[in-house]
Write a structure and sequence with these properties.
Helices cover 31% and strands 0% of the residues. It is mainly α.
Amino acid sequence: MKNPKRQVPRRAFLATAGFGAGMAGYHSPADTADRVDPATLAAVARRVVATGWLVATSTAILLS
């Protein structure tokens, strides 16, 4: 029998963000390191850092 105190609530209210680069074959057997475009990787990394910075320094309250 499961301990009800240890169960995860149905709605944990965790904010999420997804970043994609539109790469064909992403997470498939064709997805190999030699297919990574350095410019695309750098652009996605800049966007992730900028988003993290904005979230960390924002005074707004996000409601879902």
